[in-house]
Amino acid sequence: MKHYLKLLFLTAYGLKRAHAESDDTTAFFGRPFKIAGANVRSEVAVSNEFTIDAYSATVHTITVTRNHPSATADYVTPLDPSSTAIVGRWVALNKYSYKVEVDNGQTNADDMIVKLEAKYDPTQLQAQKIPVSDVYLGMYNSTRSGWVIDTERANVQLNENHARIIGLNAPAGEYMLLGRITPNLQNFFIQFASASSGTTNWTVNAPPSRMGTLPLPLQVGVWVDGLRMLIRSPEQIIVQADIRAAPAEGLPSGYMVVCKC
Fold it and tell me: Where would one find the signal peptide in this protein (predicted)?
Protein backbone atom coordinates (compact mmCIF):
# COMPACT_ATOMS: atom_id res chain seq x y z
CA MET A 1 0.00 0.00 0.00
CA LYS A 2 2.85 2.40 0.79
CA HIS A 3 4.30 1.95 -2.71
CA TYR A 4 1.02 3.06 -4.29
CA LEU A 5 0.83 6.13 -2.09
CA LYS A 6 4.36 7.15 -3.03
CA LEU A 7 3.63 6.71 -6.74
CA LEU A 8 0.48 8.83 -6.50
CA PHE A 9 2.33 11.57 -4.65
CA LEU A 10 5.14 11.69 -7.20
CA THR A 11 2.66 11.79 -10.09
CA ALA A 12 0.74 14.69 -8.59
CA TYR A 13 3.99 16.50 -7.81
CA GLY A 14 5.18 16.03 -11.38
CA LEU A 15 1.93 17.44 -12.77
CA LYS A 16 2.16 20.42 -10.47
CA ARG A 17 5.63 21.22 -11.73
CA ALA A 18 4.56 20.83 -15.34
CA HIS A 19 1.56 23.07 -14.85
CA ALA A 20 3.77 25.81 -13.44
CA GLU A 21 5.35 26.22 -16.87
CA SER A 22 3.27 27.51 -19.76
CA ASP A 23 3.62 28.16 -23.46
CA ASP A 24 1.72 31.41 -24.01
CA THR A 25 1.75 32.57 -27.62
CA THR A 26 -0.28 34.36 -30.25
CA ALA A 27 -1.39 32.92 -33.57
CA PHE A 28 -3.45 33.88 -36.61
CA PHE A 29 -6.48 32.43 -38.36
CA GLY A 30 -5.52 29.81 -40.90
CA ARG A 31 -2.00 29.30 -39.54
CA PRO A 32 -1.17 26.16 -37.52
CA PHE A 33 0.33 26.38 -34.04
CA LYS A 34 1.60 23.87 -31.49
CA ILE A 35 0.02 22.65 -28.28
CA ALA A 36 2.81 21.50 -25.98
CA GLY A 37 2.80 17.97 -24.60
CA ALA A 38 3.85 16.65 -21.17
CA ASN A 39 0.86 18.44 -19.59
CA VAL A 40 2.49 21.83 -20.05
CA ARG A 41 -0.08 24.59 -20.34
CA SER A 42 -0.50 26.21 -23.76
CA GLU A 43 -2.56 29.39 -24.00
CA VAL A 44 -2.81 30.67 -27.56
CA ALA A 45 -4.76 33.78 -28.61
CA VAL A 46 -5.74 33.55 -32.27
CA SER A 47 -5.89 37.02 -33.84
CA ASN A 48 -6.87 38.41 -30.43
CA GLU A 49 -10.37 36.97 -30.93
CA PHE A 50 -10.42 33.22 -30.26
CA THR A 51 -8.34 31.68 -27.46
CA ILE A 52 -7.37 28.06 -26.81
CA ASP A 53 -6.13 27.27 -23.30
CA ALA A 54 -5.01 23.64 -23.13
CA TYR A 55 -3.14 20.97 -21.23
CA SER A 56 -2.16 18.00 -23.37
CA ALA A 57 -0.40 14.71 -22.76
CA THR A 58 1.12 14.81 -26.26
CA VAL A 59 2.11 17.49 -28.76
CA HIS A 60 -0.63 18.52 -31.21
CA THR A 61 -0.95 20.96 -34.08
CA ILE A 62 -4.08 23.12 -34.13
CA THR A 63 -5.44 25.39 -36.84
CA VAL A 64 -8.34 27.80 -36.30
CA THR A 65 -10.14 29.30 -39.30
CA ARG A 66 -13.16 31.52 -39.87
CA ASN A 67 -15.87 29.79 -41.88
CA HIS A 68 -19.29 30.31 -43.38
CA PRO A 69 -21.54 28.82 -40.64
CA SER A 70 -22.91 25.34 -41.29
CA ALA A 71 -26.29 26.42 -39.86
CA THR A 72 -28.10 29.62 -38.95
CA ALA A 73 -28.87 30.60 -35.36
CA ASP A 74 -32.46 29.37 -35.81
CA TYR A 75 -31.40 25.88 -34.76
CA VAL A 76 -30.09 25.84 -31.17
CA THR A 77 -30.67 22.89 -28.85
CA PRO A 78 -29.24 21.81 -25.48
CA LEU A 79 -26.62 19.09 -25.46
CA ASP A 80 -29.00 16.91 -23.45
CA PRO A 81 -32.62 17.85 -24.30
CA SER A 82 -33.93 15.37 -21.73
CA SER A 83 -32.40 17.22 -18.77
CA THR A 84 -31.97 20.85 -19.88
CA ALA A 85 -34.33 23.33 -21.50
CA ILE A 86 -33.00 26.01 -23.84
CA VAL A 87 -35.76 28.31 -25.02
CA GLY A 88 -35.94 31.62 -26.82
CA ARG A 89 -34.87 33.12 -30.13
CA TRP A 90 -31.22 33.28 -31.09
CA VAL A 91 -28.96 35.35 -33.33
CA ALA A 92 -25.41 34.87 -34.53
CA LEU A 93 -23.14 37.55 -33.06
CA ASN A 94 -20.72 37.16 -35.99
CA LYS A 95 -21.24 36.49 -39.69
CA TYR A 96 -18.83 33.57 -39.47
CA SER A 97 -18.08 30.52 -37.35
CA TYR A 98 -14.78 29.19 -36.02
CA LYS A 99 -13.44 25.84 -37.17
CA VAL A 100 -10.88 24.10 -34.95
CA GLU A 101 -8.81 21.41 -36.65
CA VAL A 102 -6.38 19.14 -34.80
CA ASP A 103 -3.34 17.58 -36.48
CA ASN A 104 -4.54 18.64 -39.95
CA GLY A 105 -7.75 16.68 -39.45
CA GLN A 106 -5.86 13.38 -39.27
CA THR A 107 -6.85 12.64 -35.67
CA ASN A 108 -9.69 13.39 -33.29
CA ALA A 109 -7.36 13.84 -30.33
CA ASP A 110 -9.08 13.41 -26.98
CA ASP A 111 -6.11 13.53 -24.61
CA MET A 112 -6.45 17.23 -23.79
CA ILE A 113 -8.15 19.45 -21.23
CA VAL A 114 -9.22 22.50 -23.23
CA LYS A 115 -10.93 25.81 -22.59
CA LEU A 116 -12.17 27.68 -25.67
CA GLU A 117 -12.94 31.40 -25.57
CA ALA A 118 -14.49 33.70 -28.18
CA LYS A 119 -14.56 37.47 -27.74
CA TYR A 120 -17.91 39.29 -27.89
CA ASP A 121 -18.61 43.00 -28.34
CA PRO A 122 -20.43 44.56 -25.32
CA THR A 123 -21.60 47.47 -27.49
CA GLN A 124 -23.27 45.02 -29.88
CA LEU A 125 -25.01 43.26 -26.99
CA GLN A 126 -26.32 46.55 -25.66
CA ALA A 127 -27.61 47.59 -29.08
CA GLN A 128 -29.45 44.27 -29.51
CA LYS A 129 -30.57 44.19 -25.86
CA ILE A 130 -28.86 40.86 -25.22
CA PRO A 131 -27.86 40.22 -21.59
CA VAL A 132 -24.30 38.99 -21.10
CA SER A 133 -25.77 35.92 -19.39
CA ASP A 134 -27.42 35.01 -22.72
CA VAL A 135 -24.17 34.82 -24.70
CA TYR A 136 -22.91 31.32 -25.52
CA LEU A 137 -20.31 29.62 -27.64
CA GLY A 138 -22.28 26.94 -29.48
CA MET A 139 -20.81 23.86 -31.14
CA TYR A 140 -22.14 22.56 -34.46
CA ASN A 141 -23.69 19.09 -34.31
CA SER A 142 -23.90 17.42 -37.72
CA THR A 143 -26.46 14.86 -36.52
CA ARG A 144 -28.86 17.63 -35.49
CA SER A 145 -27.81 20.00 -38.30
CA GLY A 146 -27.72 22.80 -35.74
CA TRP A 147 -25.88 24.34 -32.81
CA VAL A 148 -25.58 22.63 -29.45
CA ILE A 149 -25.06 24.40 -26.13
CA ASP A 150 -23.55 22.53 -23.20
CA THR A 151 -24.86 24.55 -20.26
CA GLU A 152 -22.70 22.63 -17.79
CA ARG A 153 -19.52 23.73 -19.58
CA ALA A 154 -20.66 27.23 -20.60
CA ASN A 155 -19.18 30.28 -18.91
CA VAL A 156 -18.78 34.02 -19.54
CA GLN A 157 -15.62 35.94 -18.60
CA LEU A 158 -16.86 39.47 -17.91
CA ASN A 159 -13.48 41.17 -17.47
CA GLU A 160 -12.25 40.15 -20.93
CA ASN A 161 -15.64 39.87 -22.70
CA HIS A 162 -15.21 36.19 -23.55
CA ALA A 163 -17.80 33.42 -23.91
CA ARG A 164 -16.29 30.08 -22.92
CA ILE A 165 -16.59 26.34 -23.17
CA ILE A 166 -14.65 24.71 -20.35
CA GLY A 167 -13.26 21.20 -19.96
CA LEU A 168 -13.30 19.79 -23.50
CA ASN A 169 -11.21 16.67 -24.16
CA ALA A 170 -11.49 16.81 -27.95
CA PRO A 171 -11.69 20.42 -29.23
CA ALA A 172 -11.96 19.66 -32.96
CA GLY A 173 -15.18 21.06 -34.40
CA GLU A 174 -17.07 24.15 -35.51
CA TYR A 175 -18.13 26.86 -33.06
CA MET A 176 -20.26 30.00 -33.30
CA LEU A 177 -20.92 32.90 -30.95
CA LEU A 178 -24.65 33.00 -30.16
CA GLY A 179 -26.88 35.49 -28.37
CA ARG A 180 -30.41 34.98 -27.08
CA ILE A 181 -32.71 37.89 -27.96
CA THR A 182 -35.95 36.78 -26.31
CA PRO A 183 -37.15 39.29 -23.69
CA ASN A 184 -38.73 38.14 -20.42
CA LEU A 185 -37.21 34.72 -20.87
CA GLN A 186 -38.62 33.39 -17.62
CA ASN A 187 -42.12 33.65 -19.17
CA PHE A 188 -41.21 32.33 -22.58
CA PHE A 189 -42.01 28.66 -22.04
CA ILE A 190 -44.81 27.71 -24.42
CA GLN A 191 -48.27 28.02 -22.93
CA PHE A 192 -50.94 25.42 -23.52
CA ALA A 193 -53.58 26.49 -26.04
CA SER A 194 -56.21 26.88 -23.33
CA ALA A 195 -54.12 29.54 -21.55
CA SER A 196 -55.66 33.01 -21.45
CA SER A 197 -52.36 34.78 -22.12
CA GLY A 198 -48.84 34.12 -23.31
CA THR A 199 -47.43 32.32 -26.31
CA THR A 200 -49.40 29.21 -27.28
CA ASN A 201 -47.77 28.42 -30.63
CA TRP A 202 -44.38 26.86 -31.27
CA THR A 203 -42.99 27.59 -34.71
CA VAL A 204 -40.80 24.85 -36.18
CA ASN A 205 -38.57 26.59 -38.72
CA ALA A 206 -38.12 25.34 -42.27
CA PRO A 207 -34.63 23.98 -43.00
CA PRO A 208 -32.17 26.07 -45.05
CA SER A 209 -32.47 25.46 -48.79
CA ARG A 210 -28.73 24.80 -49.07
CA MET A 211 -28.77 21.75 -46.77
CA GLY A 212 -28.81 19.22 -49.62
CA THR A 213 -28.58 15.69 -48.22
CA LEU A 214 -27.81 16.74 -44.64
CA PRO A 215 -30.20 15.59 -41.87
CA LEU A 216 -33.07 17.95 -41.13
CA PRO A 217 -32.37 20.21 -38.12
CA LEU A 218 -33.51 18.95 -34.74
CA GLN A 219 -35.71 21.50 -32.97
CA VAL A 220 -36.95 21.38 -29.38
CA GLY A 221 -40.08 22.97 -27.92
CA VAL A 222 -40.58 23.25 -24.14
CA TRP A 223 -43.97 23.86 -22.50
CA VAL A 224 -44.66 25.40 -19.10
CA ASP A 225 -45.07 22.04 -17.36
CA GLY A 226 -41.76 20.70 -18.67
CA LEU A 227 -43.18 18.82 -21.67
CA ARG A 228 -40.54 18.65 -24.40
CA MET A 229 -41.15 17.89 -28.06
CA LEU A 230 -38.31 17.12 -30.50
CA ILE A 231 -39.13 17.56 -34.19
CA ARG A 232 -37.41 17.38 -37.57
CA SER A 233 -39.54 18.90 -40.33
CA PRO A 234 -38.96 19.54 -44.07
CA GLU A 235 -41.15 22.66 -43.87
CA GLN A 236 -42.30 25.27 -41.39
CA ILE A 237 -45.09 24.07 -39.13
CA ILE A 238 -46.98 25.48 -36.16
CA VAL A 239 -47.36 23.20 -33.13
CA GLN A 240 -50.00 23.78 -30.48
CA ALA A 241 -50.65 21.65 -27.40
CA ASP A 242 -53.55 21.61 -24.98
CA ILE A 243 -54.51 19.81 -21.79
CA ARG A 244 -57.66 17.69 -21.82
CA ALA A 245 -59.27 15.38 -19.32
CA ALA A 246 -58.62 11.74 -20.14
CA PRO A 247 -61.78 9.64 -19.63
CA ALA A 248 -61.01 6.24 -18.20
CA GLU A 249 -63.31 4.51 -20.69
CA GLY A 250 -61.21 5.80 -23.57
CA LEU A 251 -58.00 4.13 -22.40
CA PRO A 252 -56.71 0.79 -23.71
CA SER A 253 -57.19 -2.23 -21.49
CA GLY A 254 -54.59 -2.43 -18.73
CA TYR A 255 -53.86 1.33 -18.65
CA MET A 256 -54.80 4.00 -16.12
CA VAL A 257 -54.58 7.80 -15.85
CA VAL A 258 -51.56 8.88 -13.76
CA CYS A 259 -52.41 12.60 -13.53
CA LYS A 260 -55.64 14.55 -13.09
CA CYS A 261 -55.25 16.95 -16.02
Answer: 1-20
